[in-house]
Amino acid sequence: MEEPLEEEIHLRDYLRVILKHRWTVITVFAVIVIMVTIHSFTATPIYEASTRLVIEKENPKVVSIQEVMAVDASGTDYYQTQYKIIESRAVARDVLRRFSPADREKLFPKPEDGVISDFKQTIQGWIASIRSLLKTTDGEGAGQITGEGSEENERVSGLIRRIKVNPIRNSRLVDVNFEAEDPVLAAKVVNTIAAAYIDQNLETKLAAVQNAVKWLHSRIEEERKKVEEAQQALLRYKEEHGIITDFTSDVEKITAQKLAEMNTQVVEAESKRVEAETRYKQAAALAGSPDMLGSIPEVLDNELIQNIKSMEVELYKRMSELSKKYGQKHPRMLAIESEIKTLQERKTQEVNRVISSLRNEYRVALAREESLKAALAQQKKESLDLNQKAIQYSVLQREAESARHMYDLLIKRFKETALTEDMKTGNIRVIDRAEVPKDPVKPRRQRNILLAIIVGLLTGTGLAFFFEYLDNTIKIPEDVKRHLRIPYLGPVPLFETASKGNPRQAVNQDLVTLHDSKSTASESYRGIRTNILFSSAESAPQVILITSAGPREGKTITALNLGVTMAQAGSKVMLLDCDMRRPKIHKAFGLAKDRGISNLLVGGEAADGAFRHTPIPNLDIIPCGPIPPNPSEMLGSKRMSDLLNRLRKEYAHILIDSPPSTAVTDPAVLSKSVDGVVLVIRAGDTAKEMVKNGIGQFQAVGARILGAILNGVDIGRDKYYYYYQYYHYYYGEDGDRKKRKNRTKKSKHQHGE
User: Are residues 582 and 617 in the same domain?
Assistant: First the structure.
């Protein structure tokens, strides 16, 4: 499948559209410029007065009550709010109340009687009705304002529309402007707006102060009762729990210190008890082993036991010495044994006493440990109880302190607010009062006319391109190449065809190549003839079908004039009228159609005389003949093929005139038997889709399309595209060598396209 060519738009395409719709551009441009010029020179001059205000960031600090009257002016939202307040209806109503009835009439003059004023009032009435209807539909128009209230609202709205607020960038300054027909009144109004805005700002703040005073007075009594109730609740709690001191941080520290000390004592007592228990159990375990008792530290450290042991050693030593002299039964030996036995008994008694002492120490340590643990547990319980009491006590104490603090604060604010109730201070003041303007700001004639020129040109050009966009017809050669993708054979300019005179004159008018051979139309047909004959590289097409997509596009006249030009070139030409719906070929030569193609296709005696000679040398025609009921079947029959084969032997060129291709199937049927099809398109009248449908029908049956002819071209309208094809034609057909040379070059160029 062949890919579509990419469309290129050139500057000449835009220029052609503008030249084509030049009267639309000129008309729109002239209307806009004339209307704006008339309005600029007839409009009432408007004067604008301006006053400059400063909106301070913070209020002057007269007394310390910023929490009551302070304005948060740190953000841009505050200034935007102030700008909208200047344009508010409340300020506008206040301004109108300050003016006398005479000034109000000057500010809002009654419209003068006239067509324009009546039209404006009518439009405004319609707009008001639509707005009221919309409000009623939305449920916002429950109460309608009529009479003086409605007039006042309209004046307020009109005043707001004429107020302009222009903040100065990177500053706290703002310009308030107002427009009016009277310069003195404009200055007066804008100064009044500034004064009304400042007064309203002060009144708003003073109203806030007064409301604060009333609110503080009511809250003070409430807070006083809360203070009393909180203090009574704290006192009752102290009495119920016997609290004589406050739960300060020192009390909490002392309690914690006691717990820490007792815990330390318990740890020490437990350590001592463990140590005493260990010594006692060790001694008790060795009580049955006298020899092992000496390993007990308490026994080793006992002086009496140490002395007894020393004495025993001395006795054993003496006994050993005496045993050398005396026997065991000797009284002195017995006395020593008796002393040793006595010492052992004393030692045993002392050891038992040491063990008893260790047991007593263990019992004392155990009792002390248990006593300290019990005291620690009691102290912990008392501390927990104290913490619970402290929590509730702290809650009640904080409530009492908070109530007392709020009460004191309200008393302080009440005194400060009462002092500032009569003070008129604000953060807005006038920097420059408005002066009477000398020159009007409207209308700006030069600017308006310049804008009218620009808008007029843009609007006119836009309408031209819009109309061109809506025009879906084939107009110029580029449309044939770009949208139809078939060769372009040439244009045929507009020329007079049929007059209201006698029939002979009408015949001459149709055959323009015969009666006016030096005209541009005649030269166009000759150029088209050349392009058709050179449309094939091998040989010129012999049988040519001339048709169109729709009716009344000039295919019959094109067939006639092409036949004349081919005959004038010396070729023998046959012209067949195969339009069996609305035949016209016979009318061009003033002949009857009683015998023609239909007779030849049916056969019989009536076919005699179907061939007609014309006054033009080398040009013969076969009229349509009687109109048959089935033209398509007849034109597609074998007799039609035989007829064409017969004519091919006798004539150099055979031109066939057929009905429109989109209306009937006759052209598609005939296209199978011809060498090529020529489409006639009426420039500016035939839609692209219709031509594409016709081309599609021929392509479906495999017909060869030689190209398209643009008929009825308005040279004056599209001169930019067609002038190059005609500027040599005024020489005539028999002109000099230069003319023929240029025409030959032109024909070759068109053939190449």
Answer: yes
Residue-wise over 366-377: b if at least 16 C-beta within 10 A, else e? bebbeebbeebe
For residue 744, the model assigns a pLDDT of: 37
String of DSSP letters for 636-664:
TSHHHHHHHHHHHHH-SEEEEE---TTT-
**pTM, rounded to two decimals:** 0.51
pLDDT attached to residue 449: 92
Does residue 394 sit in the same domain as residue 271? yes
Domain assignment of residue 751, yes or no: no
Do residues 267 and 160 share a domain?
Answer: no
3-class secondary structure per residue, 674-712: CCEEEEEEECCCCEHHHHHHHHHHHHHCCCCEEEEEEEE
Structure tokens at 451: 């804008």
Element spanning 69, H or E: helix 66-69
Cis? peptide before 443, omega within 30° of 0: yes
Domain span holding position 645: 471-724
CB distance 445 to 40 below 8 Å: yes
3-class SS at 340? helix
Q: Are residues 401 and 496 in the same domain?
A: no
For Cα atoms 709, 713, 716, give the angle at the middle one, nearest 5 degrees. Answer: 155
DSSP 172: S
Residue 654 lies in a domain: yes
DSSP state of 482: I
Q: What is the CATH number of the domain that holds 69?
A: 3.30.1890
Mean pLDDT by 10 residues, the chain (753 residues): 52 80 91 91 87 76 46 68 90 89 80 59 69 56 49 86 90 90 89 90 78 74 75 72 62 71 81 77 63 59 69 75 74 77 73 75 81 78 66 68 73 67 70 88 88 93 87 81 86 69 51 85 90 83 91 90 92 91 86 84 67 90 88 87 91 92 87 91 86 89 90 67 42 39 37 31
Please state, in angstroms and rounded to a whole number, the distance separating the CA atoms of residues 728 and 738: 9
Write out pLDDT tens, residues 513-531: 888 888 888 899 999 999 9
What secondary structure letter does DSSP report for 713? Answer: E
| Length in residues, the chain | 753
Question: Are 31 and 70 part of one and the same domain?
Answer: no
Domain assignment present for 555: yes
Q: Is residue 350 part of a domain?
A: yes
Sign of CA dihedral 345, 348, 354, 355: negative
Cα–Cα distance measured from residue 744 to residue 740, given in angstroms and rounded to the nearest whole number: 6
Distances in whole angstroms, Cα of residue 208 to Cα of each of 310, 345, 416, 477 = 109, 109, 14, 82
Tokens in use for 140?
């916002």
In which residue are the tokens 């966009």 written? 469
Give DSSP secondary structure letters for 121-153.
HHHHHHHHHHHHHHHHHTT--SS---THHHHHH
For the chain, percent of residues with pLDDT exceeding 70 = 73
Write out the two tokens for 212.
Answer: 């604060």
Q: Which of 423, 93, 27, 393 is nearest to 245 (CA)?
A: 393
* Residue 127 backbone class (left: φ over 0; alpha: ψ -120 to 50; beta: rest): alpha
Distance from C-alpha of 110 to C-alpha of 544, rounded to nearest angstrom: 79
How confident is the model at residue 192, as a pLDDT? 92
694: Cβ–Cβ under 8 A, 6 or more apart, which residues? 547, 548, 549, 660, 661, 662, 667, 679
φ/ψ of 508, rounded to 5, equals -65, -35
* pLDDT tens sequence across 361-407: 778 888 887 887 787 777 777 667 666 666 666 677 667 777 777 77
pLDDT of residue 176: 93
Domain count, the chain: 4
